[in-house]
Structure prediction request, 268 residues.
Amino acid sequence: MILKTAQVDEHLIRFFCDSVRLEKMIEENFRFVPSSKPADLSVTLRDGYGAPFAGFDVEAKKTGHSVVYTRPDYRIESDADFKQADIRFHDRLALKHALMNLYSSFIVRRHWGLMIHSSCVIDGRTAHLFSGTSGAGKSTVAQLSRPRPLLSDEASLLKIAPDGVTVFNSPFRSDVSALSGGNPRPLASIQLLHQFPVNRRDRLDKASGLLHLIDKVFYWTQSQEEMLRVISILRQLTEQVPVYDLYFQKNDSFWELISDNRHCAKVE
Prediction:
């Protein structure tokens, strides 16, 4: 059994793999560190499960002292506190989605923060998040924002605390390796994307911002209590960070609207 420890935001994840091939699957985006400290989360990985990807729907169940998530291409079984988990998966895509599912549940369970379906770009001393429906332009905005560093191109990791919101480099990537990501930054704004002939940015009120972000959170709840926890954390986010509708042309000129307000990190 191969043991590797990865640093993900402020947490240590200890992976147990039964082959070098599985080790290589996770080393592309996770930053491994030497550590003798206890892991925050221990994960055993096994392949050879199920069938190829057939849809995003996940069944979540709480049974006794464990939580189980199943999809045709992966199965996760974790203890109720998300300290130890076993993942069985079909292929590389299934492993990535299973790890996203598990880690999102892990940070919500600890009321640490949220994983948001979005790209996140560093601009100076702050970070700006770009989200939206499928095809809205998250990947396009990430490409247009070069050479600004990316903290994520698919799933952003947000620590949401009373003294502010911080975005960390995310290992859950689509196109750009996480090993090229930047250091954590305070989150200054959230953009909901709309491709449009002219650039415009309209600020949403806090309630509208929360409603528009609910379906952007990576989370599969197994109880009403857990869903209320997600909403509570999301409310903390929208209390501290302004949410905008960003209508943008397919060039980098939209950054003029954002950079002019880069210091506006708090909702008035």
